[in-house]
Every structure is written in C-alpha cells, then in structure tokens.
Design brief:
By secondary structure, this protein is mainly alpha-helical. The protein has three domains: about 25-55; about 60-100; about 100-135, no CATH class. It has helices spanning about 5-55, 60-70, 70-100; strands at about 125-130, 130-135. It has a two-stranded antiparallel sheet. A hairpin with a 2-residue loop joins strand 1 and strand 2 (about 130-135). Helix 2 packs across helix 3 (about 70-100). The longest helix is centred in the N-terminal third of the chain and has 48 residues, at about 5-55. The relative contact order is 0.05.
Length: about 150
C-alpha cells in the first residue's frame, strides 16, 4: 500500500505549491478534504448496509487481513477447524470410555442394551444416533471348555 513518510509528504506539498500556486492551493486542499470525507461516509454507510443484510460476515479488519495475506488467513481457519475436530473427537472418546453414550433406539444384537458387547459377538459397539460405531475389538471365547 501507499506509504507516505514525512519527507514524501513535504515533496508532494512543494510540487503542489509550484503547480497550483499559493492562491489555489488552499481551495484545492479543501476540495480534496471534502472528497475524502464524502468517501469515508459512503464507505461507512455501505458497510452498515452490507452488515445489515449479512450479519455473519467477518469483521472488516479480518477481511482486509485475508486480502493482504490469504495464506495466513487460511492457516488460521485450518487451525480453528482442527481444534474443533480434536475437541469433538475427544468428547466422543470420553463418552465411549465412560459408557455415557445414550441409547436412542433398541439394543443392538449381541449387546446388553448399553452398547457393550455381551460376549456373543466379537465386536464392542456403541450407538451414536442411528448408526453404530465400532469401539474396540475383543476375541470371541468359545463356551465349550474342550476346545481349549
């Protein structure tokens, strides 16, 4: 973006004074100031109308940051997504470990009603919604002692 140091501003003022002359310079400066004020008011009004129509838009400085550095913005979004996925995975693991997963339907065949294997099947399951999820594998032990 345009970076105006004090030295550059001084050079611009000297050039404007030479080109416009001392009589016209104050008038042109007032016109430029008024145009800049009109532009700021227009931008503020436009932003408020857009925010009224789309209240979920990110803040203006976040949009400007994304335009200036899209890779950093995408990295931040990926990190936030990864954190949310990790948190949801950890809560699902905590529920399956503590056995606090609520059953929303009839017990699965081979389970004791809590989603825990009753020994008839070789897979422990827990029910999440209407789709069973495999939690852990357990070997099937035959009931006949002569097979040992």
């Amino acid at each position: 973006m345009l970076s105006l140091s004090p030295a550059k501003l001084l050079v611009l003022l000297v050039i404007a004074l030479i080109v416009l002359g001392p009589e016209k310079l104050p008038h042109v400066a007032r016109q430029i100031g008024a145009a800049w004020g009109d532009f700021r008011r227009f931008r503020t009004r436009l932003e408020s109308e857009v925010r009224g129509s789309f209240p979920d838009l990110p803040a203006t400085h976040e949009v400007a940051q994304a335009v200036r550095s899209p890779l950093a913005f995408l990295d931040r979004l990926a990190d936030e997504h990864e954190k949310s996925q990790t948190a949801s995975t950890e809560s699902a693991v905590d529920q399956s470990v503590t056995g606090s997963v609520p059953s929303t339907g009839p017990p699965l065949p081979g389970t004791n009603g809590n989603g825990v294997n009753s020994g008839e099947a070789g897979v422990e399951t827990s029910e999440r919604g209407s789709v069973p999820e495999v939690v852990a594998l357990r070997p099937v032990v035959p009931d006949d002692p002569s097979m040992n």
